[in-house]
Amino acid sequence: MKPNFLFGFVLFWTASLCNAQIEQIDVRHYKIDLSVNDNSDTIEVLETISFSHLDEKKPIVFNLKSVNKNGAGMSVSKITSNDKIVQFFHDNDSLYVFIETPSEDHYYELNISFKGVPIDGLVIGENKFGKRTFFGDNWPNRAHNWFVCNDHLSDKASVEFIVHAPQKYTVVANGALISVLKRRKVKTFHYFTMVPIPTKVMVVGIAEFNLEVSGAVEGMLVQSFTYPERKKEAAKDLSLAPAILDFYISYIAPYEFEKLDNVQSTTRFGGMENAGCIFYDEDALNGTQSAENLIAHEIVHQWFGNSATEKDWPHLWLSEGFATYLTNIYIEETKGDLAFKAQLIQDRNKVVNFDKRYHHPVVDVHYKSLMDLLNPNSYQKGGWVLHMLRAEIGDELFQKCIQTYYRKYSRSNANSKDFQNIVEEVCDRNFSVFFNQWLQRAGHPKLQINSNFENRKLSLEINQKEGVFSFPIKVDIKCTEGPTIRRTIRITQETTRKDIVTSYPITEVIIDPEVELLYELVK
Predict the structure, then answer these.
(1) Could you tell me the domains of the chain?
(2) What crossing angle do the helices spanning 416-427 and 395-409 adopt, rounded to 10°?
(3) Which listed site, 16, 262, 425, 446, has its alpha carbon 20 to 30 Å from 81?
């Protein structure tokens, strides 16, 4: 290929593909040989990428952070394929590779040598005790700051980490620990996972750790890696993990990953659900076991987010909404109905208050930054969508929907319509109105409710303000004698009036007694 044409082609693609999904690449496997040291923040990497080139009319291009004006970033020294030197061009966070002889089956394997100081993604610094640490922190698309990749959650691959670190460190990473080798002043840890995962949850953690076995679930060890200075407190919190994992295995499906490590870290998030290797903020683990819900949330992600992954970012609720609501189901199972409903009310208040600041739908295609999607729409409102679905179809069908969806899309990707199709298939009915109004439309029902009762007659008027939603709402009527009367009223119009006559004088009317509707009371 001629240089003039080559670089002109590169410049044409650079502007549009920087940090974007590279649809013509399907990575099969990453092998990342990483060396770190205590003398500088420079990392050295020899990476092997096995991939398919899906569209040969487009260039082979990957995401990799370029060197910035301060000298940080990654610098590529050599690329080979089948022991032959391969030309490349690295600019504007995109790495273009030019293979002279295309493969007949469009399958390639590249060996890429590079080094540099990570700007982000692999965070090198100190923990709360002043000890040096190295922690991968890739969400949402920060992996390309420290290794070559197709940095989009739709392209999933198996991954292998070979990490060389000074002797004092322990290394954690995705997958099974294959070996630990000691030589001179360096230890080499080799981890391997065959389960395909997105780059957002591919990590290593390098620090001085205390290792403790928290328990075993179905013959698999659940381990805790904590800072030695507070190992008892952190290990006490993480000791909850085996029981939580066991609960979700019974509720959803068997656990797919080779192990579950829970790691105290310096992640910027409260918890980060890295596949089989969950990172928790160092201050979240304090020995009080107050992190129980956080641990449950991150463990749910091993099914929803890591294995069954959303196809694109606007469908983030398929990760965060699922993790939020299935954590609530864990609360219901372990703490009881009152704690469950209290959490639902708290979640509902967050949704209502957030909507006043950011009036967008759950499936939000107009976000400005991927970080902006970490909001109550993706978490609490997504969870409430599942709760209202459960109220509509019942516990048995709801659990069947969750299990069927996971079974079909594990180790794959799905969007909101895919989940809707599963629900309609399981329940044998149309749910287009339900999913459209709760996911594709901004806001929630704003209700003005007038309930007047005198003696044995209740006059109920429900007015919808700022738009009309379709939903059932339950009403409990308490009387001077007899059991509580429950009525379910289907709301489909701006104003709904209902008169109810009872056998005994009415003493109290309770709207939404089971906390099953996402709504806001207005005057």
Answers:
(1) 1-165 (2.60.40.1730), 308-440 (1.10.390.10), 446-521 (2.60.40)
(2) 130
(3) 16
Sign, CA torsion 258/262/267/269: positive
**Residue 522 vs residues 88, 138, 352, 359, 465: alpha-carbon distances, Å:** 61, 42, 11, 17, 8
Residue 230 DSSP one-character state: G
Best CA proximity match to 280, nearest among 308, 254, 250, 301: 301
**At CB < 8 A and 24+ separation, what contacts does 399-406 make?**
399/251, 400/426, 401/426, 401/427, 402/251, 402/252, 402/326, 403/252, 403/253, 405/308, 406/252, 406/253, 406/303, 406/304, 406/307, 406/308
User: Model confidence over 151-188: pLDDT tens digits?
Assistant: 999 999 999 999 999 999 999 999 999 999 999 899 99
Q: Which residues contact 188 (CB under 8 A, 6 or more apart)?
A: 162, 163, 164, 165, 179, 180, 181, 182
pTM higher than 0.90: yes
Residue 427: what are its φ and ψ, rounded to 5°? -90, -10
Residue 241 in 3-state DSSP? helix
Distance CA 92, CA 97 (A): 14
Per residue in 380-416, pLDDT (tens digit) is 999 999 999 999 999 999 999 999 999 999 999 999 9
Q: Which of 212, 249, 214, 250 is CA-nearest to residue 231? A: 212
Tell me how far apart the 2 most distant CA atoms of the chain are, in Å: 92
Identity at 104, one-letter amino acid code: E
